[in-house]
């Protein structure tokens, strides 16, 4: 656009472009301060039609951001997780991930691009030099800050350019909904699931190796056997989740060697059933010393005395291994007489 196309009354006043050093060089300051160059107005400063075009451009970018956010939410809700698409030259990728990435990136880019274009074309671009001042906020400094803020608000033309203001507020208000929608993947609240396992009254103790129900005669004094609840199979969809809570460790000790009274009452003929999951960070316990009746966690060497209620005698574990009360059914098989009396594994926020 040439100066002939701009109304004469909108043209800026002539400025003196000659300028010398604001502060000449001297002994203390060997470099001269050249000062600021003369301000050159932009097209938008002198032509309202150009300013309107910039305003519409910024509003368009904010509007595209809003549409991209809506597309993000729609993609998250409608596109199946297992669907894939071919994208050259990447190849086959997840359609959901591709759609989420593109829409989220476009929403962020348009907000940033709109803000940059707004600042470069419509906000004041006068350069100001301000002398250093003490850090303490004196009354005159606070007054100056408020004056500068009001001046900046005025120069941002936010109040006059309502189209920019409304679309910007819409884009900024709508974009956080992307994060809110993602909270759906956190799933339902855990409730009391961490306090319960598959063990219940009447559940048979099944040998992990043979997959057969256990009888008292299958365990000899000094032996260590691992068991799982009846009905839990390795091919089940939730096997890993359930076995991580229900894995059981069986040891047989002479009843006279069991020190803890409750542990003796919950056992059967010296057969003790404890959780296999360490109460430190959840590692599986697999090392047993039959002479001392100590079980050792191989991860961080937490040691439990199985003859004394599985109390911690060494290591970082915070509490004993939970015990499962067991008995024998009419057919002579070992069975659970209930669930663990406390959550298994590491301590968590609801314990105690």
From TrEMBL:
<feature type="transmembrane region" description="Helical">
    <location>
        <begin position="163"/>
        <end position="183"/>
    </location>
</feature>
<keyword id="KW-0812">Transmembrane</keyword>
<comment type="similarity">
    <text>Belongs to the Rieske iron-sulfur protein family.</text>
</comment>
<keyword id="KW-1003">Cell membrane</keyword>
<keyword id="KW-1015">Disulfide bond</keyword>
<keyword id="KW-0560">Oxidoreductase</keyword>
<keyword id="KW-0479">Metal-binding</keyword>
<dbReference type="Pfam" id="PF19297">
    <property type="entry name" value="QcrA_N"/>
</dbReference>
<keyword id="KW-1133">Transmembrane helix</keyword>
<comment type="function">
    <text>Iron-sulfur subunit of the cytochrome bc1 complex, an essential component of the respiratory electron transport chain required for ATP synthesis. The bc1 complex catalyzes the oxidation of menaquinol and the reduction of cytochrome c in the respiratory chain. The bc1 complex operates through a Q-cycle mechanism that couples electron transfer to generation of the proton gradient that drives ATP synthesis.</text>
</comment>
<keyword id="KW-0001">2Fe-2S</keyword>
<dbReference type="InterPro" id="IPR017941">
    <property type="entry name" value="Rieske_2Fe-2S"/>
</dbReference>
<keyword id="KW-0408">Iron</keyword>
<keyword id="KW-0813">Transport</keyword>
<protein>
    <recommendedName>
        <fullName>Cytochrome bc1 complex Rieske iron-sulfur subunit</fullName>
    </recommendedName>
</protein>
<keyword id="KW-0679">Respiratory chain</keyword>
<dbReference type="InterPro" id="IPR045603">
    <property type="entry name" value="QcrA_N"/>
</dbReference>
<dbReference type="InterPro" id="IPR036922">
    <property type="entry name" value="Rieske_2Fe-2S_sf"/>
</dbReference>
<keyword id="KW-0411">Iron-sulfur</keyword>
<dbReference type="InterPro" id="IPR014349">
    <property type="entry name" value="Rieske_Fe-S_prot"/>
</dbReference>
<keyword id="KW-0249">Electron transport</keyword>
<feature type="transmembrane region" description="Helical">
    <location>
        <begin position="99"/>
        <end position="119"/>
    </location>
</feature>
<feature type="domain" description="Rieske">
    <location>
        <begin position="245"/>
        <end position="335"/>
    </location>
</feature>
<dbReference type="Pfam" id="PF00355">
    <property type="entry name" value="Rieske"/>
</dbReference>
<feature type="region of interest" description="Disordered">
    <location>
        <begin position="1"/>
        <end position="42"/>
    </location>
</feature>
<feature type="transmembrane region" description="Helical">
    <location>
        <begin position="58"/>
        <end position="79"/>
    </location>
</feature>
<keyword id="KW-0472">Membrane</keyword>
């Amino acid at each position: 656009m040439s100066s002939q196309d701009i109304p004469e009354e909108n043209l800026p006043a002539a400025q003196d472009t000659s300028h010398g050093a604001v502060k000449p060089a001297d002994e203390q300051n060997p470099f001269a301060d050249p000062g600021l160059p003369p301000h050159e107005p932009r097209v938008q400063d002198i032509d309202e039609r150009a300013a309107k075009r910039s305003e519409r451009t910024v509003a368009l970018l904010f509007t595209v951001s809003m549409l991209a956010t809506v597309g993000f939410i729609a993609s998250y809700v409608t596109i199946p997780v297992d669907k894939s698409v071919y994208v050259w030259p990447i190849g086959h990728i997840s359609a959901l991930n591709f759609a989420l990435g593109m829409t989220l990136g476009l929403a962020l880019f348009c907000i940033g691009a709109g803000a940059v274009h707004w600042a470069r074309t419509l906000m004041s671009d006068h350069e100001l030099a301000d002398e250093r001042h003490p850090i303490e906020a004196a009354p005159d400094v606070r007054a100056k800050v408020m004056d500068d803020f009001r001046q900046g608000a005025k120069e941002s033309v936010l109040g006059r350019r309502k189209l920019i203001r409304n679309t910007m507020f819409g884009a900024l208000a709508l974009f956080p909904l992307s994060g809110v929608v993602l909270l759906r993947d956190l799933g339902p609240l855990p409730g009391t699931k961490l306090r319960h396992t598959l063990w219940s009254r009447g559940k048979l103790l099944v040998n992990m190796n043979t997959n057969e129900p256990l009888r008292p005669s299958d365990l000899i004094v000094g032996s260590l056997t691992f068991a799982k609840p009846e009905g839990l199979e390795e091919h089940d969809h939730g096997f890993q989740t359930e076995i991580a809570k229900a894995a059981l460790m069986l040891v047989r000790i002479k009843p006279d060697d069991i020190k803890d009274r409750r542990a003796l009452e919950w056992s059967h003929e010296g057969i003790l059933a404890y959780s296999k999951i360490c109460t430190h960070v959840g590692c599986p316990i697999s090392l047993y010393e039959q002479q001392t009746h100590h079980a050792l966690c191989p991860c961080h060497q937490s040691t439990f005395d199985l003859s004394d209620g599985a109390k911690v005698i060494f290591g970082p574990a915070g509490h004993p291994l939970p015990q499962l009360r067991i008995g024998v059914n009419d057919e002579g098989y070992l069975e659970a007489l209930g669930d663990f009396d406390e959550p298994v594994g590491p301590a968590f926020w609801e314990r105690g």
